[in-house]
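A quick aside before the break. I want you to see a complete sequence-to-structure record at least once, exactly as it would be stored in a machine-readable document. Don't worry about memorizing anything.
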Amino acid sequence: MSQFIFSKKAWLFHAFFIFSFSIIAQTPVWTENFEYPIGDEIGKHGWLFENDNPYLKVCPGLTFEGYAGSGIGNGLQIEEENKNAARHTFPQISEGCVYVSFLVQFNSNLKSQYFFTLWDGNMPSWAGGTDTKFAFNGRIYGEKNSDFDSRLNIGLSFYDNQKAVYTTDKPVVIGETYLLVIKYEIVPGDNNDKVSLYLLDRIQDQEPEQPLLGPLSDNASKGDIYPAGLMFRASHTGQDIIVDGIRIGTTWKSIISSSSSGISKESINNRLKIKKDSQNIFITLPKEEQINIYGINGKLLFSVKGNTGINRIPILNKGLYFVTAGKEKGKVLF
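That is the input. The structure line, written in tokens, reads:
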């Protein structure tokens, strides 16, 4: 009888672990819906800047049927070359895949320059930081279509602007709203990460077998990165792009599905009492429970029997962590 009880407990734990992993895999790591007043400079809302030039501004947002980031808040207008590039960090992802999705509407022709890139999160020296690597991998471009004034070709490079690859058979229509998804694959080893780009005119719950562009890998000189930030860049006079509904995750499901639109829904309810300082998280429990700490990829990082009252758990690295204790679940960002 005791053997049966143990097996049942083991099965329940296994099922709970799979369920917890599934929740984490379907949860975005970071989102931005630009829920700020129209006309506000984006630098007022946590976005980083490079110099004293004017900031990009909040504008009316975009919609896309079925997309989790559709119709929430406003958007960001990317225009004119003398505007500040808009950067934002997110929890560093150091293994597996990074998916970044956002709605985009092109309202003018472009001049073969990139307007989006992933980033390692370190501010370069020329922007007031200390980093000299200039690690902007996964660049998205736009250029005028040679056959139609009302259409654009979309481009992608890993790092080198001279190696950008452009679409030829699927131009986008100026004024239409699309869903762009860039996938960054972290491959073990040096200088072999890959990027791919997807362009959607309707929602697709499953990752397409073939991307629009890629996978590409061309960065033998600058090296790979662990993505920890993104940047939107105004590059030339006359540029006019609106972006909205940014979602970052480690699976296709985590960024696309409306059912994964927030960590604080019923699946991860944030009823745990969690506090933090610079080196620890503190979890208050009403009774003894097993505390489990997971990384953003669902990997169990720490497990301990929690006591009634306050439990201190040291955290060594910055990032987003998911916490379970009994039936309760929560998150904490360092």
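Two observations worth writing down. The radius of gyration is 21 Å. The longest helix spans residues 2-25. We'll return to this after the break.
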